[in-house]
Amino acid sequence: MASCAPLVVHLLLLVLCYIYCICSGHLHPLDALSPSEISTIQSIIKSSSHLSPNPFGFHYVGLDEPDKHAVLTWQSDPSFHPLPPRRAFVILRANGQTHELKIDLDNNSIASHRQHSAKSGYPMLNVEEQVAVLALPFKYAPFLESVNKRGLALRDVVCGTFAIGWFGEKQDKRLVKMQCFVTGETVNLYMRPIEGITIVADMEAVEIVEYEDRVVIPVPAAAGTEYRASRQLPPYGPRGKPVVVTQPEEKGFNFEGNVVRWANWNFHVGFDSRVGLVISLAGVNNGKDDIHRSVLYRGYLSELFVPYMDPSEEWYFKTYFDIGEYGFGPYSSSLKAGIDCPHNAEYMDGYYANGAGSPVLLRNVICIFERYAGDISWRHTEIAIPGRIITESREEVSLVVRTVANSGNYDYVFDWEFKTSGSIKLSAGLTGTLEVRATDYTNAQQMIGDQHGTLVAPNTIGVFHDHFATYHLDLDVDGPENSFVKANLRTVRAEGCTTPRKSYWTVVSETAKTEADARIAHNEGPPSELLFVNPGVKTRLGNAVGYRLIRSGAAATALMSEEDYPQKRADYTKKGLWVTPYHKSEKWPSGVYVDMSHGEDNLAVWSMRNRSIENTDIVVWYTIGVHHVPSQEDFPLMPMLNMGFELRPYNFFRAQSRDRDSTVWQTLG
Ligand SMILES: *[C@@H]1O[C@H](CO)[C@@H](O)[C@H](O)[C@H]1NC(C)=O
Ligand SMILES: *[C@@H]1O[C@H](CO)[C@@H](O)[C@H](O)[C@H]1NC(C)=O
Ligand SMILES: [Cu+2]
């Protein structure tokens, strides 16, 4: 009988776990907070006697990531191990202070509560408080006079809030700037800025605290700015015939809760109000024996820094941290079937807590689809065998997870593309409209000495700026203990008389010991391979299993001087790659509180601790970036500009062959 006991216990736990999972409404420890969990959090906080948040005082409500070890233990046998404790992390503004709370969702209680005490920084602006502040100019006499003076109709004026940044001043108020635009004859309001005015509002007092109308500059004309198809006349420009991709059989992927399984891949899809899409526990199965091998514990775009290069009075502060200051969750766009994603896509919804703490549904903000774009995954032609020509090739079919975040004038398209070869390709596409400055110039020849942009239309300057997208990639290649290896390619002189060659190149590998060894600038030093290996897992051939990060052309690094304030706040953008040891609280490279921050809490500061990163759980921070010098083609809308990189297996798959009927890599054993 004794031998049966574990089985009985196992079954009992299975039943208990099943009941528990059903009752608590979630099945996976990394599932995003459900709308009912968000409502529960709202009522726990509202009924707490010692907290009275501002009317729109909820600035972040998200999953407090469970202990990683507990998640991995659970994953090793979900029917046997209990789910880790379910908690939420909440950031509130109350009584002029920022509060951090941990909410225990297993027994609906406040597990911890503390005030944020660091010197600088405020939480993300929420939608509702921005809307409240945006009503102010329309009741503010000096602004009405400014509108009048420019001969504009007030009903055509719309305003936006812009994070104010930090430029060395002492400031104890939470402020934003506002800029206004003219719509009416066109919806392309970003092409029609009202220039010359500075409006500063206090977010807590909800009042305008500073106003200046410095100079009147004509608002650029509406003509030629409209982009809606309904307002355009044929012909619509060059266009081929319609193209449709069909899947004659069923889809090749399926969902188990929020876990997606496709070909040799499986991963969890989550959604967070700060970063939007989160991919977790991505791993591949070894074909025949179906063993799960981990690749990525958690990955997401963690910050998007967009500094503009016009130092003038009304423009100098435009140095946005789109994720840390605004958050991507609320601005995730509903995707249009057949246009934003192909007809064979499946969609997922997202939820976030609004400023009042209530759950808000975002429909179809993530799409997942199999992509066949007519590409080849591998091929070979053999002509050396006399009398025969052998050609083999396979089509490239991959799985894409896509989300689109709208950040004012820009729309960003983020793709995670999983390939059967084991590669993950990450890409960020930039489109939407430029942020333009109105000007008196109507011809580029008049712009002598004005060095801040390109004249893209009459009276319209597309201002120079950068886009730096920083990914947080907690790689777990065959387990959490990994090392970062920089394999440098070195030229060696060929010695002696055994070869007529004078030189060749070889690989000299360095394993990074501490964080100081893993701050790598794009295009610095000799060519190198960036490898993430598991020193404890070797292939049969004796190579450590690994993944390599393949850099792409989008390798811009910040050009602002180091003592410039926005650069201090984003000093991590001076390097393309950082590796840190896993630390639960190090989630966002620009810090937890980015709005008006001084840069005391960011990736570069953490890295200065110079912690050990060898053969331990490490996190890779990789920044792709472009310097954007606008051109006339970016007006009135900007054609998509793509940047990206690839995580590609490196001695990860052991002995292998190509399966005849698929492109899946198979393990022979
Ligand atoms: C809730 O559960 C946690 C453990 O998960 C425990 O530490 C805490 O004391 C409990 N709180 C209440 C109010 O029961
Ligand atoms: C980082 O730590 C290593 C090992 O302790 C040491 O050799 C190195 O000088 C340190 N680097 C910096 C920049 O502190
Ligand atoms: Cu741009």
Automatic annotation (TrEMBL):
Residues 244-655 form the Copper amine oxidase catalytic domain. It is an enzyme of class 1 (oxidoreductase). The modification 2',4',5'-topaquinone is found at Y410. Its cofactor is Cu cation. GO terms for biological process: amine metabolic process. Residues 123-220 form the Copper amine oxidase N3-terminal domain. Residues 28-114 form the Copper amine oxidase N2-terminal domain. Belongs to the copper/topaquinone oxidase family. This is Amine oxidase. It comes from Vanilla planifolia (Vanilla).
